[in-house]
Amino acid sequence: xxxxxxxxxxxxxxxxxxxxxxxxxxxxxxxxxxxxxxxxxxxxxxxxxxxxxxxxxxxxxxxxxxxxxxxxxxxxxxxxxxxxxxxxxxxxxxxxxxxxxxxxxxxxxxxxxxxxx
Length: 117
Hints:
Blueprint: H1 2-5, H2 9-14, H3 19-41, H4 47-59, H5 63-87, H6 96-116
């Protein structure tokens, strides 16, 4: 159903997708998963911006594949950011959120520039 929603509302409705139910379920799932992850890891900036774009480039547009790729890519991204945070101002450890914010800001600028072009 989420793959059908990528086109537009009329196409998805024509394919028999219950728009309100799918959007409501997706919103609820995203809200609960976001709340759970932030409560466990703390607010780490821009992971939700960078990781889905990387996952989409790796596996394409199918949501079933994107979910698994985003989970794996997010874990790798957070691990790399943690390792970088330990060495960027050695011997003091920098906050992981600072590393992900810098990378995320650069990714946001690239995405905005690509959209404007």
